[in-house]
Structure formats: C-alpha cells, structure tokens
Amino acid sequence: MLVPVRVIPRSSRNILEWEEGSIKARLTAPPVDGAANTALIALLSDALSLPMRAIDIVRGTTGRQKLVDIEGLSPEEIARRLAAFNNKKR
C-alpha cells in the first residue's frame, strides 16, 4: 500500500503519527546522506512489526514529502499498529 509520509528531521524524539491516511514522521536523524531515510524505514519497520525489506521509499528520497510502499497492511491496520507503538513508547 502506498502511503504519503511527511518527514520532520532533527526532531527531539522519533515519533510516528497517523493523520487521515498519511503519516507524519518526526525523526532525530538529520537530512544528510540518507540518514533520515534510513531512520524512517527502521522506525516504520519497528512500529509496524514488519521486516525492513517490506518498506520502500518510492518517491521523495531527497525531500520531506515522501511516498512509501508498505507491503501487506491495510490503512486500518497501519493506524492500529502506529497507535499501539506510540502508546507503548510512553
């Protein structure tokens, strides 16, 4: 499933928020040499309990607006898993 993602690099914490069919990702990594992209894939992998190979940045590798392909999950399941992940981190 293709999901729009808005990345906010250099945040104080790593946070993923589901907002009306898209994800807002606050990442501690800087947007340098692909560090934010690597951090995004690792964080999504952890939050969604998927292997990293199931997540791919299809468009926007050099910008804040990205289109990410997440294999095998419906929008409802993505929202549920992100909510559970955020509640677990508190």
The low-pLDDT segments are: none
CATH topology: Conserved Hypothetical Protein Mth637, Chain: A
Helix content range: 25-40%
- Strand fraction equals 25-35%
For the record, the CATH class is Alpha Beta
User: Tell me, what's the shape?
Assistant: globular
Q: What is the tally of helical segments? A: 2
Quaternary structure of the protein: single chain
What is the H/E string?
Answer: EEEHEEH
Count of all domains? 1
Which strand order spans the largest sheet, edge to edge or round the barrel? 2-3-1-5-4
Cα-atom radius of gyration: 12 Å
Termini gap: 28 Å
Largest sheet: 5 strands, mixed
- In the CATH hierarchy, the architecture is 2-Layer Sandwich
Give the arrangement of secondary structure elements.
Layout: E1 2-8, E2 15-19, E3 22-26, H1 35-48, E4 55-59, E5 65-70, H2 75-89
Parallel strand pairs: 1-3
Antiparallel strand pairs: 1-5, 2-3, 4-5
Give a written overview of the molecule.
This protein is α+β, with helices and mostly antiparallel strands. The protein has a single domain (2-89), classed as Conserved Hypothetical Protein Mth637, Chain: A (2-Layer Sandwich). Helix content is 32%, strand content 31%. It is built from two helices and five strands, in the order E-E-E-H-E-E-H. The chain has helices spanning 35-48, 75-89, and strands at 2-8, 15-19, 22-26, 55-59, 65-70. The chain has a five-stranded mixed β-sheet. It is globular, with a radius of gyration of 12 Å. The termini are far apart. The mean pLDDT is 95. It holds the Pfam family DUF167. InterPro entries: DUF167, YggU-like_sf. This is UPF0235 protein KSX_28570.
